[in-house]
Amino acid sequence: MLTPPESPGLPLLSVSLPDPGDGTGPLAVDPKKFRDELVVAADWVADYLSRIRQRPVAQPVPLEHRRALAEGGMPQEGQDLGALLEFVGQAVAPYPTGNGHPAFFAWINSPPSPAGVIAELLATAVNATCGMGEHALMDLERGVVRDLAALAGMAPATGGVLTSGGSMANLLCLGAARTWFLRGHEATDGPAYDQAHARLTAYHSDQAHMSVAKAAATIGLPPWRLRAVPTTAERRMDVEALKAMIDADLASGLLPFCVVSNLGSTASGAVDPIEAITQVCRSRGMWHHADGAWGGLGAMVPELAPLYRGVADLDSLTVDPHKTLSVPVGCGAALVTDPDRLREAFTYRASYLDGDQDWPWMSDYTIELTRPGTRALTLWATLHQLGRAGVSSLLQHYQDLARYLSRRVQAHPALELCSDGPLPVVCFRLAAGTALDRPEARADLHTAVAARVQARGHAYLATVCHDGETVLRACFCNYLTTADDVDTLLEEVRAAAQHLSTA
Ligand SMILES: *Cc1c(COP(=O)(O)O)cnc(C)c1O
């Protein structure tokens, strides 16, 4: 052990400290200047959002511009507030990929809710670290998680966390399922863990979102321990096939631990038979996770509600408020019927981080420690702008628009409906035997039609693989979209097909 040198008579502090300064380091800004700039920014935001409809749906980013942005490069000396507003106006805002435009039908990207935009700014000012300790926004997160679970129709004790999105929520829920299963088999460490872990097997339908495979890989499940269960004609998981696959795996000594069902498949809006899958899980000691990233709140729509019976008996559910609810990205949620299952999987301690038994930290339920409060406040603001009634009518609006598109497709002599839902996704193709048809290359024609529609900038849709064929796909999740936008889409498809078939 070191002992301090004898130094009687010497002054305790002979080093000179640097001048502490006057509290105006390089980040400090004159309060008036800050306020003025915020006002300009607020004007810019209001202007930008109010003129969404006037802009092209998408504007390709010129290659030189992409390169310049991607290259990086910061100045030696700082600029006033980073010259941010000018930069955003010139370099960022002109190049959105449709997000927010009411005639964007390609992917599940919605415009931000007005209350959410304001909440994002306010939460950023508060800048809470919602992982540990106490913060009002962390308690608010517990509350909005409960509100979301109630909207979905889950059991009252349900808890969970907000995440960056559906991919992260799927990962957390699979992690919770894995730990739960291993604990149940007394295989949480040592050789028992090694042996059990290598045999863990999970199941999803052949319509599952690829984030499920990513999540499985991340928790250490190789692709050959993740089974794709075939689907029926309506693209719902074939429960008899599921049972047969699980039982064959059990017979060969594997450990089936989890089924992931779809509440709204991304390609076509299919909802798996929840109750039947839960029954399979219960009888075989497995966890039932549902991926409802964009369709998880379907129970709020009367015409869909019957498909959502049994949500209260799920073990976990992924919901993405940044999809159908228009909460600014990224806001997803991992909802778990027994939230202790998340804690068992994700509570770790450090000597400098103690935790709280009565009010467990939010970091105990996830793999993030420092977490933003923006998710909780933007979700809260959006839910309070909507109310329960608003959530129902918003989701109903999407159903109505999808039904309108499918009716128009069916009535159109040059188009054929491939699938419509039940969630608001409509897949369609150019009809065989019409002037628009080139039978030798109809799939290529669909790709070319989508590309031409996208390039013209009046509407935007995507393609999807449907029964092995590339067809057109439109989905609905923009509160600004009207029937006129749907008409514009069809007119654009017709014009593009005409152009290509006569070219
Ligand atoms: C969008 C989506 C995801 C992924 O969610 P992110 O928020 O993009 O990470 C997962 N599952 C389904 C069914 C989705 O539609």
From TrEMBL:
Annotated region described as Disordered, given as residue ranges: 1-27
Keywords assigned: Decarboxylase, Lyase, Pyridoxal phosphate
GO molecular function: aromatic-L-amino-acid decarboxylase activity; pyridoxal phosphate binding
SUPFAM superfamilies cross-referenced by the UniProt entry: PLP-dependent transferases
Modification N6-(pyridoxal phosphate)lysine occurs at: K323
Biased composition (Low complexity): 9-20
Family per record: Belongs to the group II decarboxylase family.
Stated name of the protein: Cytochrome d ubiquinol oxidase subunit I
Source organism of the structure: Streptomyces finlayi
